[in-house]
Amino acid sequence: MRLQSLLPIAFLGSVVAAPVADSWPFGPLVANGRWIQNAKGQDVTYVGVNWSGHGEAMIPEGLQYQSISKIMSDIKSLGLNVIRLTFAIQMIDEIYAKGGADIPLSTAFTQALGATNGNRILNQVLAKNPQFTASTTRLQVFDAIAAEALKQQIYVHLDNHISKAIWCCGETDGNAWFGDTYFNVANWQRGLKYMATHGKSWPALTSIGLRNEPRNPSNNAAVARTYNWETWYKNMIPAGAGVNEANADLLIFYSGMNYDTTLAPIPTAADLGGGLRFRKTDFKYANKMVLEIHNYQTTATSCNSITSGLYNGGYNALDASNKAVVNVMPVVLTEWGHDQTNAEYRGVYHTCLQSYLGGLKAGWMLWVISGSYYVRSGTQDYDETWALYNHNWSGWRQQAAAMAIKSMAASTV
Ligand SMILES: *[C@@H]1O[C@H](CO)[C@@H](O)[C@H](O)[C@H]1NC(C)=O
Ligand SMILES: CC(=O)N[C@H]1CO[C@H](CO)[C@@H](O)[C@@H]1O
């Protein structure tokens, strides 16, 4: 653990303030029954936002508009305690292809936005974040975010969002399922291990999601034939084992099928096909396993229809009183969200999740903080109406909606 590995530094009389197990984040975090807990045995409920870094530039969004420290303090001001920081496997593939060297920001922006715009955005990033230079690498930006997260005591949850760095997610984007056009399984496992290992230098990093929103690769018949729970198990289990081997401190998040809207057979250890059943006690790192679910039933008119679907789709894992539940585990809603420009923050969907998750004291991460994207689906400086931030990341898009998130955070933790 960190304390032990840092002892030699202390004996050498270093004045460097080294992270120790008795300081925040009091890690490593563990899964104990339905709770995530810190090393002091206290329950930790994640409440946070997505912050993507898996787009074409493979650089966390918004840095041309705002400094990392201000973004973090704005997140903190809402009472949020975690960022879901997304990355693309392509970034790690490129690092391997260059013998371990990552690409500098100048190249990354030019490749993603073209020479003129890439250079312009780079200069804006350097103006807002003067700790960087044109030769700072993408991974060094992730490092800087993780360092700021430590400073402001915000947990970092890394998420492998996609393989090829593009807007996610669709059934025909080539990233849908294990073995799909861009979803090379060996590269994926390698990339996860790389980030888990690299993240050992980020004390704020407490967990990692193996893969965002597995889904039916509907334009790829050969791969679509393997779209089932058996294949899910045969891929997710080795990937999680690899992460645990690379960095035993991390919680490992398992997302389900149909865009991670269902993990139905997992809590009850139902037959997955091929004689397989998910039993957490089969794994020596069972105390690192967490389930993650997404929900976007934004037009629901009844709260019951949302909560019964959530319960049967995986939230029953929280329910130790349910005799059918074999795997009692933490469940985190790592994505949900809605338009931030209208009154949806007062609607059925939002208020339902607020009361359900608040009642369960179960964690969540809102999609999304990003007021705009460097580029999304071919449009540069794309405006994100679902974002907490306004377009230029200078303030909340709608004050009342942001305050609804703040009160939801307060009522969940
Ligand atoms: C940022 O956006 C806000 C809200 O739309 C606007 O009032 C402000 O002038 C913008 N700031 C800059 C520097 O463009
Ligand atoms: C910051 C951000 O946009 N994060 C991701 C949150 O989830 C959605 C849906 O998968 C992604 O598209 C976003 O990129």
Automatic annotation (TrEMBL):
<feature type="domain" description="Glycoside hydrolase family 5">
    <location>
        <begin position="50"/>
        <end position="369"/>
    </location>
</feature>
<dbReference type="InterPro" id="IPR001547">
    <property type="entry name" value="Glyco_hydro_5"/>
</dbReference>
<dbReference type="GO" id="GO:0004553">
    <property type="term" value="F:hydrolase activity, hydrolyzing O-glycosyl compounds"/>
</dbReference>
<keyword id="KW-0378">Hydrolase</keyword>
<keyword id="KW-0732">Signal</keyword>
<protein>
    <submittedName>
        <fullName>Endoglucanase E1</fullName>
    </submittedName>
</protein>
<feature type="signal peptide">
    <location>
        <begin position="1"/>
        <end position="17"/>
    </location>
</feature>
<dbReference type="GO" id="GO:0000272">
    <property type="term" value="P:polysaccharide catabolic process"/>
</dbReference>
<dbReference type="InterPro" id="IPR017853">
    <property type="entry name" value="GH"/>
</dbReference>
<keyword id="KW-0326">Glycosidase</keyword>
<comment type="similarity">
    <text>Belongs to the glycosyl hydrolase 5 (cellulase A) family.</text>
</comment>
<dbReference type="Pfam" id="PF00150">
    <property type="entry name" value="Cellulase"/>
</dbReference>
